[in-house]
Amino acid sequence: MIPSVLPTYNRAPLEFVRGEGSWLVERDGRRFLDLGSGIAVNALGHAHPDLVATLNEQAQKLWHVSNLYRIPEQQRLADLLVEHTFADTVFLTNSGTEACELAVKMARKYWYEAGDPDRVEIIAFEGAFHGRSTAAIAAAGSEKMIKGFGPVLGGFTHLPWGDIAALKKAASEKTAAVLLEPIQGEGGIRAMSDEDLRAVRAICDETGALLILDEVQCGMGRTGRLFAHEWAGITPDIMMVAKGIGGGFPLGAVLADERAASGMTVGTHGSTYGGNPLGCAVGAKLVEIVSDPGFLATVNDRAGALRQKLEGLVATHPDIFDEVRGAGLMLGLRCKVPNVDVVSAGFDAEVITVPAADNVIRLLPPLNITEEELAEAVTRLDAAATQIESASSSD
Ligand SMILES: *Cc1c(COP(=O)(O)O)cnc(C)c1O
């Protein structure tokens, strides 16, 4: 008999009943150090007092009102995002997938209105993840995501990750947009170098193609800048944001400059819940906290310390770990044993990590994790690795 919850997830036998900062409490009372943050969602950990207060306050006032009316919390969040980024305008969504839908529609509509309606081709990269809707799986293009779901939305070309020479060849006056994650998350914490990001920007400028960056996972302070592309000194034309921006409340956004957004006039897009007062109040508080230069400086300090400790871990366990990759507090450990075994040994050691492609485990701790907690996390990862070593030596 089919379970009452549609069985599309492979769930660990863990049931968390409470969260406190960087910690998750299991039903049986065990306290897990959370290096997953709900896959980069709980940017300020669990039950952050300012976010709780903001949510409670808004909950007393107004939960939902239609986008038929002005929504001051939405306006405030959009103003903050415009103030702190390249963007001139923002559309609020409830998720990264919805942000992907709009980013694709916006890019194509731009060319339609520019008198070039056949310019619909979007170049994306292998290993990408942009969500699970029909457009998002077409954008990712992997067999695993599209197989069995009928006709795939057309107009996407896929290149090997980071292959700038291939992009140079593929991009043309027919390319509507180039779409990529500055650091692939699900794809295994695979970062594009700053130099290559600048090359992508240059190719877009030469051909006129719009650059869409998916910063759903790597954005919102995760790399130590508010958005990852800032390190390369470039700006996109359109950017997808979600996950961390809500700190655990479902929230996403599409940011764009005025030109790229110019096709999206009254009636061309909408959402019932997108931009609702509850989500936007929380999002605005979160952006306020995370965009503070002092906060980001601390993220960079923590990131440097964690990276150094992880390099040490790789050196201590050369049969378990291969290398550290990523940037800021978006780090991956490539494994030499199956990554899911390391995640599972981590559960035994009461530390939470998240598997990704390329046999990587992801470390995406809350951005406000303390130094002591990071040291404890690495001690627990060390215990997990030792457990796997002693199990294999006793075989
Ligand atoms: C998670 C993710 C998405 C999809 O976001 P949802 O909120 O799950 O719809 C899109 N792009 C990237 C890079 C992601 O990590």
UniProtKB/TrEMBL annotation:
UniProt-recorded Gene Ontology molecular function terms: identical protein binding; N2-acetyl-L-ornithine:2-oxoglutarate 5-aminotransferase activity; pyridoxal phosphate binding
CDD domains associated with the record: OAT_like
Catalytic activity, EC: 2.6.1.11
Functional pathway: Amino-acid biosynthesis; L-arginine biosynthesis; N(2)-acetyl-L-ornithine from L-glutamate: step 4/4
Main location: cytoplasm
Binding site for N(2)-acetyl-L-ornithine: 132, 271
PROSITE patterns in alphabetical order: AA_TRANSFER_CLASS_3 (PS00600)
Residues annotated to bind pyridoxal 5'-phosphate: 96-97, 129, 214-217, 272
Cofactor: record remark: Binds 1 pyridoxal phosphate per subunit.
Single biological process term from Gene Ontology: L-arginine biosynthetic process
Localization annotation: Cytoplasm
Residue positions, PTM N6-(pyridoxal phosphate)lysine: 243
Enzyme class: transferase
Keyword check for Transmembrane helix: no
Cofactor(s) this protein requires: pyridoxal 5'-phosphate
Catalytic activity annotation: N(2)-acetyl-L-ornithine + 2-oxoglutarate = N-acetyl-L-glutamate 5-semialdehyde + L-glutamate
Keywords: Amino-acid biosynthesis, Aminotransferase, Arginine biosynthesis, Cytoplasm, Pyridoxal phosphate, Transferase
An annotated GO cellular component: cytoplasm
PANTHER family: AMINOTRANSFERASE CLASS III, SUCCINYLORNITHINE TRANSAMINASE
Subunit (UniProt): Homodimer.
Family note: Belongs to the class-III pyridoxal-phosphate-dependent aminotransferase family. ArgD subfamily.
HAMAP family linked: ArgD_aminotrans_3
Miscellaneous: May also have succinyldiaminopimelate aminotransferase activity, thus carrying out the corresponding step in lysine biosynthesis.
Name of the protein in its database record: Acetylornithine aminotransferase
